[in-house]
Amino acid sequence: MNIVKMIATLSVVLSSSVLAVPPKAAVPANFKLSLERQACYGFCPMYTVSVDAQGLVTYSGERFVKLKGTHKAQLSKSQLTRLYKALERAKLGQYKNEYKNMDVTDNPSAILKVSGIKIGARVGSKTIEHYFGDKSAPESLTRLENEVDALLGTRKWVGTGIYRE
Asked: Does residue 12 sit within a domain?
């Protein structure tokens, strides 16, 4: 009978230690993202927005934006997870590092930098330089850049049309 008690006690101890393992974080601690919007020959907004693994958003407006200078915001955990999942779904490894052909001139550029995310079969970082006059750039890249802007809430700083300088 003592052996039965020992086995029962051992199974309770083992099962409780398994349950005590914390769940895997939705967003890794080394995750970082930045999106830089660069000039065009005209009035295109120029700014950089970034977010870290804690959800701290930092915006720096330069020209043709509603708010210049540095501004900060905080994403909720669910907003940060939504952003991270959108980047995972985008399969960043499918994109080239640059799309810089000047098929059409006078367009703006965007630079998307992401680290701490799965790129193909490994976790790493990816930088994509995207000139909007490069006809070889996939439309999905532009959609991803716009989705990043939307999820980070840049519109409140960038403004639209008449609300820019």
From this structure: no
CA distance 19 to 28: 21
How would you label 88-99 residue by residue, b for 16+ Cβ within 10 Å and e otherwise? eebebeebeeeb
User: Residue 75 domain-assigned?
Assistant: yes
Residue 131 near residue 102, CB atoms below 8 Å: yes
- Closest by CA to 159, choosing from 32, 59, 41, is 59
What pTM value is reported for the model?
Answer: 0.84
In order of 5, 12, 39, the CA distances from 36 in angstroms are 64, 53, 10
Domain count, the chain: 1
Domain assignment present for residue 22? The answer is: no
Which CATH number characterizes residue 107's domain? Answer: 3.30.1560.10
Over residues 109-130, the pLDDT tens digits come to 999 999 999 887 888 999 999 9
